[in-house]
Amino acid sequence: MKNYFQPSSPLPHHPALCNHSAFPLARRALLTGAALALFSVITPANAADSDDWTGFHIGGNIGYGWFDSDVKTAFLPGTFASSYSLPNKSLDVDGPLAGVQLGYDWQFGQNRDYVLGVEVDFNWSDMHDSRSGGPLAFGDGTFPAADDGSRYSVSTDIDWLSTARLRAGFLPKPNWLIYATGGLAVGEVKNKAMARLGGGNAAIYANSSSETRTGWTLGAGTEWKFASQWSAKLEYLYFDLGDDKLTANRVNSPAGGDPDPDRRVRTRYDLDGHILRVGVNYHF
User: Fold this and answer.
1) Is the residue at 197 inside a domain?
2) Which residues lie below 8 Å from residue 213, measured CB to CB, with a gap of 6+?
3) Contact between 244 and 266 (Cβ < 8 Å)
4) Which domain holds residue 42?
């Protein structure tokens, strides 16, 4: 029988599932400080003025993404009476992103102090998280006195994320743009779920998905031209790729046949989060 649960280290025999590290919050704070420090270096007060924003631009960006995915799990059909209660957990999905962008801007207005444009980008992503643990609680909320082999695991990975956005802003100074942006978001998302209802030949329910999901994004940013054809930007985006429902079937064959072959486990993942990034553009 295939082993669908191979932890990299021994799981704690504790009533609660494994706790997650608080390090993502520290990484986000560190990224924010690093982004602001970078901007203070590449946008000096005596940067060369350039008041021409009309035209194409191409560049690269690097940043960090994060979101809390509320993972909800239940048996299907709902009439199934199980001795176990499947947990609802929160995944702290986070990780770095890096990519490229291409866009076009049009500068207009009586004083040429407004900019309207479009931008598309593609970013490789290492946003991921997983949770696993056991034993599972019984339906009445109590836990086994000893480890009975019951286990549960979920994970989410985002391999890449791309957006196509409009952006509109104004120029407080000829070389300084403040803008709002929004549009389409597309990403490759991989989800996995597994539940094992005991040890030995107990029922194992497992499934995984890998699909390109479509949603929307909204955010804001600021961009400075520090040379006639070069600019640096700081940008925040909120993205929403909807939610994914993963149905897991029994994947092992019980001795004597399955007493409930219609039994399923349904896991739901929230896929909305945040991105903070810095970038550099070449204008032509």
Assistant:
1) yes
2) 186, 187, 188, 189, 241, 242, 244, 271
3) no
4) 23-283
The structural domain count of the chain equals 1
The rounded distance, in Å, linking the Cα atoms of 123 and 60 is 9
Mean pLDDT over the full length of the chain: 82
**Is there a domain that residue 49 lies in?**
yes
Can you give the pTM of this predicted structure? 0.78
pLDDT tens digits along 118-146: 999 999 999 999 988 888 887 777 888 77
Lowest mean pLDDT among 38-47, 184-193, 241-250, 264-273: 38-47
Tokens of 233: 């930007």
**What pLDDT is attached to residue 13?**
40
CATH code for the domain of 241: 2.40.160.20
Residue predicted with more confidence, 228 or 218: 218
The answer to whether the peptide bond before residue 135 is cis (omega within 30 degrees of 0) is yes
Mean pLDDT of 81-88: 73
Please give the full DSSP string across 32-95, using - where no structure is assigned: HHHHHHHHHHHS-TTPPP-----EEEEEEEEEEEEEEEEEEEEEESTT---SEEPPPEEEEEEE
Residue 160 lies in a domain: yes
DSSP assignment, residue 79? T
Rounded CA-CA distance 99/280 in Å is: 11
Is residue 271 within 8 A of residue 240, CB to CB? The reply is yes
